[in-house]
Known about the structure:
It is a single chain. By secondary structure, the chain is an alpha/beta fold. The chain is 31% helix and 19% strand. The protein has nine helices and eight strands. Strands 4-5-3-2-6-7-1-8 form an eight-stranded mixed sheet. Helix 7 crosses helix 8 (176-183). Mean pLDDT is 84; it is low at 3-9 and 215-226.
Amino acid sequence: MTGACVATPPLVPAGAPAYVLAADVRTILPRLDLVDLTISDPPYPWFTALQRLEREHGTLGPPETLYPVYTFLAQWFPFVLRRTTRAVWITTHRLYVPFYRALVPARAALGVWPTGVPDVCLLHVGPPLRAAPSPAVRALHRSGQDSPEAFWAALLALTPGTPPGLVFDPFCGTGSGLSAARRAGYRALGCEQDAAVLARLRLAQPAFVIGPAGPSQESDHGSFAA
C-alpha cells in the first residue's frame, strides 16, 4: 500500500495533535506524507445518475466507462492507498463498490461488509484483520451524518498495530472519526472544504486546530457534487 513520497513542506503544524485542513482534499494529497491509517465516509458523486442507470438498465457497466464517477475517485483514492501504511477504512453506497474495487491494486485485499444502513457498505484495504467487524459494530454507521465515535473507534481497534501514529480522514465532516483517533492515542489529520460543515466542526471539536493547506490550496478539479 505504501509508496515513496517526495519531501514537501509539512501540512500539519508541529505539535498539533488534531489538525483539519480547510481545503479540497485533491489539492493537498500530492503534499501528504505517509499516514498510518485512513478512515472516511466520502461523498456520493452523481448518485442520482447511477441510481437511474441501474433502474433503467439493470447494470452500471464497467466502472471505467462511467467517466465522471471513476475520475472523481481516481483523483484521490489511489493517492490515499499509496500513502497509507497500515489500513484504509471507507464507507460507501453499494453502487460505488465496483469503482473502488477497480482502483484497488490486484496485490491488495479488499474486504466488503454491509452496514446497518440499507445499501451502504464498509470497505477495508490492508493486511488481515484481528477479526471481521461485527454486525453490532457495522450497525453503528450512520448515513447522511457523521457516524458516532464508537463506530470509528471499533474499526481502529480491529486494525493490526497500535498507537502512536497518524490517522487521516480526507472527508472529515464534523470530526467524529478524528476524535476517535485522538482518544485511541493517535494524532489526527482531516480535510474538509465545506464552510458550513467547518462551522459545525468548530462547535463539535473546539480543541481541533483548523487552518489552510497553504499555497497549493487552489483547485481546478471542480466540485465534488454534480
